[in-house]
UniProtKB/TrEMBL annotation:
Coiled coil: none annotated. Residues 29-197 form the Thioredoxin domain. This is SCO family protein. SUPFAM superfamilies: Thioredoxin-like. The keyword Signal applies. Belongs to the SCO1/2 family. Residues 1-17 form the signal peptide. PROSITE patterns: PROKAR_LIPOPROTEIN, THIOREDOXIN_2. The lineage of its organism: Bacteria, Pseudomonadati, Pseudomonadota, Gammaproteobacteria, Salinisphaerales.
Length: 197
């Protein structure tokens, strides 16, 4: 399912839930009960194979991208960083950001570690082989693809720009698209974390 249809479906569900419950609307899209729990098997920045259990009991944000991305990735990670800075200290320190590279050919653990270090200690670089990446993308109904290399071998990668938010139990809760500001993201995350058991 293309990302635009997922967002439209999530928005519709969010509006219906808000109308029926009397709760204020989210700035992002409420995907609780629509998207599956966080599950993955990937390689981290030190070359170790890890699963979602590695960050158990931490609320997490997950974003797909690659380190050679010229615009969406650095802008999105900077927006996430700005949002996290607005959270109360306890909430901010609990949060983890999973930056999943869909370009394992160029983004080895060392490259990921260098890239994510520019966005704060809470950002963790992950990648995997094509089988692992495709399974994760299928699970969350998003896609990625590779452009043709230029004469220098450089190529662009198309990928989802959505940021997924999961609670401490790894349950999908929110989806942020590029229209959600850092302030709005911070408000949603604080509300999500405050309401968590």
């Amino acid at each position: 399912m293309p990302c635009r249809y997922l967002i439209a479906l999530s928005l519709a569900a969010s509006l219906l839930a808000a109308c029926s419950s009397g709760e204020p609307e989210w700035n992002g899209h409420d995907i609780a009960g629509i998207m599956p729990d966080l599950t993955y098997e990937l390689t981290n920045e030190t070359g170790e194979t890890v699963t979602e259990a590695a960050r158990a009991d931490h609320p997490r944000l997950m974003f797909f991208g690659y380190t050679y991305c010229p615009d969406i990735c650095p802008i999105t990670l900077a927006r996430i960083q700005a949002a996290l800075k607005q959270l109360p200290e306890a909430q901010r320190e609990a949060m983890r950001v999973l930056f999943v590279s869909v370009d394992p050919e160029r983004d080895d653990p060392a490259r990921l570690r260098e890239y994510t270090s520019g966005f704060g200690d809470q950002v963790i670089g992950l990648t995997g082989n094509q089988k692992q990446l495709k399974a994760l993308h299928k699970r969350f109904r998003v896609t990625y693809g590779y452009g043709e290399p230029d004469e220098d071998g450089f190529y662009l990668v198309s990928h989802s720009s959505a940021v997924f938010a999961f609670d401490r139990q790894g349950q999908a809760r929110l989806l942020f698209n590029q229209d959600v500001t850092a302030d709005q993201m911070a408000a949603d995350l604080s509300r999500m974390l405050a309401s968590a058991p």
